[in-house]
Amino acid sequence: MAVGTLTTVRVPAPRVIDRRVAGGAMVLAPPAVLPLAAVAAVIVYLGELIGLPSFASAALALGAVALGSRGLHLDGLADTADGLGASYDRARALEVMRRGDSGPTGIATLVLVLLVQVGALAGAITAGHGIAAAAIAVVAGRGVLSLCCARGVPSARPEGLGATVAGSVPVWTAAAVFAVLAGAAALVLPWWQGLTAVVAGYLAASALLARCVQRLGGVTGDVLGGCVEVAVAGVLLASSF
């Protein structure tokens, strides 16, 4: 479920998708996207090898990741922004998100977050650790899915992906995922920068998650995607110098 949902890699579909399977998929999201992390790292490496401008290398790497994940999280970010920006009650805001078409708020948010991601990765490339930053951002960005699905986080709707995964991950498991990601990042970047990068990504996702719980009543599939993208932006910003 993790590989099939988060990447374009063809895998057999799970025979049953229940809360146990869904929770396990959220926990296993970081290793499931290792192929995407590898693609991003290789593109940055090749860009450096042939002398591409850092901004171009960053845009190509993040574009490849978006293509390899079907633009799933970017779509979620835009829909979440439209829902949060709508001056309606909770039910109307959720309906705006369900429609799937992006309004001005969603489009502006999408453009701004992508600019931050590309600019920050370009900064990391210029600083000499763009390969590591790209890989960490892809993996740690998906790591926040276990945080968003931790016990105690409600679903905004009674149906859909959010309802299946909400509260399906034990808190200690989500904490363990964070610890592993922070430790891995500290090994491939200067330890303080690796730790800071993962913390920054988690803080960015936590801020959006808290706002969505307050405004929408919980998580949806779109909210999960939005949290992934802001986490990637946070990781890259902390890695950009």
TrEMBL record:
| Localization per Swiss-Prot or TrEMBL | Cell membrane
What's an example Gene Ontology biological process for this entry? cobalamin biosynthetic process
Q: What keywords would UniProt list here?
A: Cell membrane, Cobalamin biosynthesis, Magnesium, Membrane, Transferase, Transmembrane, Transmembrane helix
Keyword Cell division appears in the UniProt entry: no
Q: Name one GO molecular function term.
A: cobalamin 5'-phosphate synthase activity
Pathway of action: Cofactor biosynthesis; adenosylcobalamin biosynthesis; adenosylcobalamin from cob(II)yrinate a,c-diamide: step 7/7
Names of the cofactor(s): Mg(2+)
Reply yes or no: does the keyword Magnesium apply. yes
Per the record, GO CC terms?
Answer: plasma membrane
Query: What EC number(s) is this enzyme filed under?
Result: 2.7.8.26
Please give the superkingdom of this protein's source: Bacteria
For the protein in the UniProt heading, the enzyme class is transferase
Q: Give me the segments passing through the membrane.
A: 21-44, 50-68, 107-125, 131-149, 161-185, 191-210
User: Which InterPro entries does this chain map to?
Assistant: CobS
Give the membrane topology: Multi-pass membrane protein
Describe the function of this protein: Joins adenosylcobinamide-GDP and alpha-ribazole to generate adenosylcobalamin (Ado-cobalamin). Also synthesizes adenosylcobalamin 5'-phosphate from adenosylcobinamide-GDP and alpha-ribazole 5'-phosphate.
Q: What is this protein called?
A: Adenosylcobinamide-GDP ribazoletransferase
Q: What is the source species?
A: Amycolatopsis regifaucium
